[in-house]
Design goal:
The chain is of the alpha+beta class.
Amino acid sequence: MGNLGLAEMQIALASRFASFDLESSPHRSAFQWGGTIFALSLIQAQQPYAGKKTTDCANPDTSDSVLGYTCNGLNRTCQSYLVFRSQPSYNTVTSISNLLSADPTQVAEINEVPEAASFETNQLVIVPVNCSCSGDFYQNPPSKITVPPPPPPPPPSSSLTPPSPPSGSSNRTWVYVLAGVLGGAAVLLIVGVVIFCVFFRKSRKNPILVVSSNPSESFEAIAKKKKLQDESQSLDFLDSMSSIAQSLNLKMYKFEELQVATDNFSSSSQIKGSVYRGVIQGDFAAIKKGNGDVSKEIELLNKVNHSNLIRLSGVCFHDGHWYLVYEYAANGALSDWIFHSDNSGKFLSWKQRIQIALDVATGLNYLHSFTNPPHIHKDLKSSNVLLDGDFRAKLANFALARSTEGEEGQFALTRHIVGTKGYMAPEYLENGLVSTKLDVYAFGVLLLEIVTGKEASAFYGEEYMNLSEILNKVVQEKDGKEGLKQLIDPFLLENYPSELVIIVINLIHTCLKKDPTARPAMDEIVRSLSRILTTSSAFDSSSNMSWSQASTGSY
C-alpha cells in the first residue's frame, strides 16, 4: 500500500495498541509499560499476515512465497487454533484429535464437551494447535497421512463354463433374437413418432417453461412473449411460476396486485425509468419492470443475504415481462446526493460519505469472498448504490453480475464487453479479463466521485487520460493539503479532516492502478475505511452543520 499503509499506521497507532491482545500474543514480553512504550523496534504494532492470499480459496496461486505471520518477536512458540467442520468418520473428539495431532483433552475443554462426545455433521469444532518459528514465519508443521491402497478385486469365479449347444440350435436362436430386436425397434419408433407429434402440437399452444428438477440447480425460466390464448392457460402458467418462486423462497405476485400497489403504474408512482414505488400490505416496495433474461439476477439475489445488498422479495411474470419486487430504499440513489446539479438541498457530511463507502466495500467483499464461486457486481456506479432511511448503502442492479471462475481456477475471459463508461477497468476494456479487481477499480472511481462531488466523466474530459494521474499531484505533494482544495467537494466547506482525506486519496490512487495485481483486495479496503471512519467519528466536525437532510429521496 506504500504511503497509504504508513499514513494509516500514524493515525490509527493509538487505537491499535489499545486493541492489541497482549495475553494471547507471543510477543507480550517485547512491551514494557510504565506510561511509555519501550523496545518498539522489537515488534510491529500489528502483526502483518503475509499469507492473506492463501485464505482465498478461489486464488489459484499456490506459490509458497507468502507463508503466514512474521516471526519477529522474542518468544519462538505460541498457541493458536484452527477450525474444523465435522464430517462422518471424523465427528468425535478422539477422531478429530487424531486426525489433526491435537490433545483430545484440550479439544473437549475448548469446545465445552466431554471427551467421548460426538459432533453433528458440518458442526464447527475449534482445535488448539501449537505454532513455532520455522524460518521467518510462525506455522504448525503439517503431517502426512498415508492412505492404504484399496483391497484387490475378488478372484474370478471358478465355476465351469456350461457346454455350448449344437450349432444348428445356436443359429436358430440368433434368428429369433434378431427378429425380436427389429420388431421391438419398429414399435418404439412408431410410439416415438406419435409422442413427438402430440408434444409438438401441444407446445405450439402453450408457453415453454424449462425448470430444473433440482431447486438448487440454476434457475432458468424461458417464457414466450406470445399472449396467452385464454384465461385457463394463464392460470396454469401462473401456478407453475408460483411453484418455482416457492422453491426459491420468493413470493410470486399476481400482476393485479402490482397494479393496485402502484396505482396502475401511474406517473406519480414512477421513481426513475422502469422503477416504481408501490405499497404492498402497508409497506413500501420498489417494483422494477425487467426486459430480457433476468434469471441470473433472480438466482444470485436469491442466494445472497447481506444488509449491504438490496433484497429481492418477490417476482411476477406478465405479458412477456418480469417484474421484480425489491425492498424500498427511502433516500434513493447515491448519485442524487453527491452530484449537485440543482438546488435540491441534499447534502452528505464527510462522516456519512465514509460510512457509505464502507457499506459499498463491505457488500462487494461479501460477493468476492463469501459467495461460491466468487461473484463480481460488474456495474458498480453511483446510480446503482441506494440509500435507506438511515443513509446506509445497499448495492442494487445485479443484471451484469457474474462469476469470476474460469477454467481450472484461472481468470475468466470474455469478448462481450458491457458496462458503464468511466467505471470499466483497463484490462477489461483491452483484453476482456474478468476478476474481482474490476470491482476494485470501479470502487476507486466511485470513491473519487463521493469525495469530489463530480461525475467520473468530468475527469475524463480534462487533459488527463488516466484517473490515477489526476491524483498524482495530491499524492506526490509533501503534505497534499494544497491540492485538496481544488479536488474536494466544495459543498463540504472544508469541514473535513485533511489528514484523513489524504489517506482516502491514496486509497483511491491504489484502486485505480492500471496493473490489476497492484490494486488492493476488497477486504483490505474494508479494513482501511473502518479505521478512517473510526477516526472521522472522533473528528465529526460535521455534526454541528446546519444542513437539512431530507428523508424522502428517490429510489
